TrEMBL record:
<keyword id="KW-0067">ATP-binding</keyword>
<dbReference type="GO" id="GO:0005524">
    <property type="term" value="F:ATP binding"/>
</dbReference>
<comment type="similarity">
    <text>Belongs to the ABC transporter superfamily.</text>
</comment>
<dbReference type="GO" id="GO:0015424">
    <property type="term" value="F:ABC-type amino acid transporter activity"/>
</dbReference>
<dbReference type="InterPro" id="IPR030679">
    <property type="entry name" value="ABC_ATPase_HisP-typ"/>
</dbReference>
<dbReference type="InterPro" id="IPR014343">
    <property type="entry name" value="Ectoine_EhuA"/>
</dbReference>
<protein>
    <submittedName>
        <fullName>Polar amino acid transport system ATP-binding protein</fullName>
    </submittedName>
</protein>
<keyword id="KW-1003">Cell membrane</keyword>
<keyword id="KW-0472">Membrane</keyword>
<dbReference type="InterPro" id="IPR027417">
    <property type="entry name" value="P-loop_NTPase"/>
</dbReference>
<keyword id="KW-0813">Transport</keyword>
<dbReference type="InterPro" id="IPR003593">
    <property type="entry name" value="AAA+_ATPase"/>
</dbReference>
<feature type="domain" description="ABC transporter">
    <location>
        <begin position="15"/>
        <end position="260"/>
    </location>
</feature>
<dbReference type="InterPro" id="IPR003439">
    <property type="entry name" value="ABC_transporter-like_ATP-bd"/>
</dbReference>
<dbReference type="GO" id="GO:0016887">
    <property type="term" value="F:ATP hydrolysis activity"/>
</dbReference>
<keyword id="KW-0029">Amino-acid transport</keyword>
<dbReference type="Pfam" id="PF00005">
    <property type="entry name" value="ABC_tran"/>
</dbReference>
Length: 266
């Protein structure tokens, strides 16, 4: 039976930014940022270095907190609500509940260095979701198999190549069965010859699941293959938004054209 909450969530976007501001001291990174990501959407964010792409993902993951505005996940406020014209912070417990539905893979892998591969993967499912160790291990093994690392469960991250560490990080994110997956330049720290292995795993996830994805990448072919929408982002705002074919072939805004010609030249 769908609950009242399920009914309320139906039709709501997976992610909605409503007038989001983010400042670091005097540095205003986002100002009044509005955008939505529909459920099951695969959205790529592009934009110049320092424009705030990582910050957007970190806000969704609650690793940073917005200084103004509201972020909604499935229609539920993430960290703040508006009540009587006031911006009120929600309790830590509420954030943690909402964050359970979100996974993130980082440029620098961010595995727990002192834990074996298998323990990296079962950590959150056992501690955050309360899954039994046996179930978590069984699921972790399936995921390791899926990312081609079935033989590495007892290794430590330092014993793995960058590409292998990133595949573990992907398995770790998937172990939480996220509804939303955030990918921040996940191949930028990898040697060119293994970039495609990691991208192929992500393509497979995109093809075989309905996970909503918000992707920051410089891999334009990957963005084209996987995403159904591209947001060009600069100066704290969305400058242009289009399907990948349109965005990469025939962008409307001069700012987008300049950016793409600089990136594609590299
Ligand atoms: N923890 C922080 N403390 C202070 N300033 C920060 C912090 N994190 C990010 N910034 C600043 O916020 C701005 C946006 O940074 P962000 O990392 O989001 O950019 P980006 O678009 O991801 O860039 P890149 O393409 O280089 O990864 C930058 O000016 C950066 O210096
Ligand atoms: Mg970044």
């Amino acid at each position: 039976m769908p609950t009242q909450l399920d009914n309320a969530r139906r039709g709501e976007p997976a992610i909605r930014f409503d007038g989001v501001d983010k400042r670091f001291g005097d540095n205003v990174v986002l100002r009044g940022l509005d955008f939505t990501v529909a459920k099951g959407d695969r959205v790529t964010l592009i934009g110049p270095s320092g424009s705030g792409k990582t910050t957007i993902l970190r806000l969704v993951m609650t690793l940073e907190e917005a200084t103004g505005g509201y972020i909604y996940i499935d229609g539920e406020p993430l960290t703040h609500v508006e009540r009587g014209g006031q911006r009120i912070a929600l309790k830590e417990k509420h954030r943690n509940e909402v964050r359970k539905r979100i996974g993130m893979v980082f440029q620098q892998f961010n595995l727990f260095p002192n834990m074996k591969v298998i323990d990296n993967i079962i950590e959150a499912p056992t501690h955050v979701l309360g899954m039994s160790k046996a179930d978590a291990v069984a699921k972790a093994r399936q995921l390791l198999d899926k990312v081609g690392l079935a033989d590495k469960e007892d290794s430590h991250p330092s014993q793995l190549s960058g590409g292998q560490q990133q595949r573990v990080a992907i398995a770790r994110a998937l172990a939480m069965d996220p509804e939303i997956l955030l990918l921040d330049e996940v191949t930028s720290a990898l040697d060119p010859e293994i970039v495609n292995d990691v991208l192929n795993i992500l393509r497979d996830i995109a093809d075989t699941t309905d996970i909503t994805m918000l992707i920051v990448t410089h891999e334009m072919q990957f963005a084209r293959d996987v995403s159904n929408r591209v947001l060009m982002f600069d100066g704290g705002r969305v400058v242009e938004e289009a399907e990948p074919d349109v965005m990469f072939k025939d962008p409307k805004e001069q700012r987008t054209r300049d950016f793409l010609s600089a990136v594609l030249r590299d």
